[in-house]
Amino acid sequence: MACGEEPPRNEAREYDKHGDRWERRGEEFEYLCKPCYPAENHQPRDDLEGLLTGIGAGDLEREAFPTWYCDRAGQGDRAEE
Q: pTM of the prediction?
């Protein structure tokens, strides 16, 4: 959960991390508490997760990530360290 809460599924909202509620085959969904759900972006991600994985996003400290991501995301390719 975005806020750290884990409400029962019947009290949560389904969140499609791919942002495409019409193409649901083979997807796993996450569940957010009702107050957190409206804050999430529900638009297609255009391979955002692939980009993040390709540029090694999980290897940085949280504070350093925004600047690092902006530098690489603008390159149009998957930069490698």
A: 0.31
